[in-house]
């Protein structure tokens, strides 16, 4: 089998040199284990902080140990009656072509007409993040005006579309190029999306949301968060999902220049969250979103990289904004 290990820790943006591809002999299966042939791997922003040796909500990757992450594939050998050969599963031993796991560490995937890869995106962690973030963290209400950063990405593109279906009246976003901003407006149906590289975020945001915001879904942090705080209405809610603008910067070096006094006067709620805390919403989320997709009410995109050996490249490209929609690797 082949697997990627973390060969060194990055300083600043990760490079190909931080990763090494290893060949390994797999042991025999123990009782209760399965062998999964991975078909699609997920590359996600949260993997970047895990490359640093710093405490976080997921432990850091260890040097010279195999990387992990979301993956979907098929059971090709089994010593568990619960996961016979042929079962399609999702699990966390990505970054490799073949994975041995305890059957209990695999999620059997429901049969739908949708591609397996959707379970790493819209029907998986990013989808639940968008859905739970809106419903349980931002308490989205009918009539709300919502702003989401990272709008052309996996989570952000879904946030805007789900928000509309949940009753938001005005949905605006930001993304890293003119091309992405146009696509978010034309294909994802946002009322407006700006290219945050084209000027100060504060000004660009107030042009698309002159009446202010009820909800800001933050995927980015930094300048975006500061601008959103100034644009919030009374009792506004900020769901803090990610701060990708700062993932390459050590915590002591991050400078948030925000007018926090507004948080008080406008009674703003700022709440961080992790998708796994909202697992109880999963059945409702799966039912609702599968139906939306099957009814053609969501425009879902993937950026696909071919080949296990290209996994680090897909990851690095995604961090740089090379993806539209969910970044995945097909083996
Ligand atoms: P995306 O598909 O959105 O990919 C990452 C995107 O981030 C890139 O495409 C790029 O788009 C954007 N980006 C990179 N650098 C910057 C920057 N300096 N400023 C602004 N945007 C930047 O990834 P996901 O949808 O998977 O994740 C989005 C965010 O949500 C991340 O912060 C992630 O950590 C977080 N997250 C949190 C979860 C939770 O449970 N709390 C779960 C899942 C994700 P562009 O071209 O627009 O710059």
Automatic annotation (TrEMBL):
<dbReference type="InterPro" id="IPR013149">
    <property type="entry name" value="ADH-like_C"/>
</dbReference>
<dbReference type="InterPro" id="IPR020843">
    <property type="entry name" value="ER"/>
</dbReference>
<dbReference type="GO" id="GO:0016628">
    <property type="term" value="F:oxidoreductase activity, acting on the CH-CH group of donors, NAD or NADP as acceptor"/>
</dbReference>
<protein>
    <submittedName>
        <fullName>NADP-dependent oxidoreductase</fullName>
    </submittedName>
</protein>
<dbReference type="InterPro" id="IPR045010">
    <property type="entry name" value="MDR_fam"/>
</dbReference>
<feature type="domain" description="Enoyl reductase (ER)">
    <location>
        <begin position="15"/>
        <end position="329"/>
    </location>
</feature>
<keyword id="KW-0560">Oxidoreductase</keyword>
<dbReference type="InterPro" id="IPR041694">
    <property type="entry name" value="ADH_N_2"/>
</dbReference>
<dbReference type="InterPro" id="IPR036291">
    <property type="entry name" value="NAD(P)-bd_dom_sf"/>
</dbReference>
<dbReference type="Pfam" id="PF00107">
    <property type="entry name" value="ADH_zinc_N"/>
</dbReference>
<dbReference type="Pfam" id="PF16884">
    <property type="entry name" value="ADH_N_2"/>
</dbReference>
<dbReference type="InterPro" id="IPR011032">
    <property type="entry name" value="GroES-like_sf"/>
</dbReference>
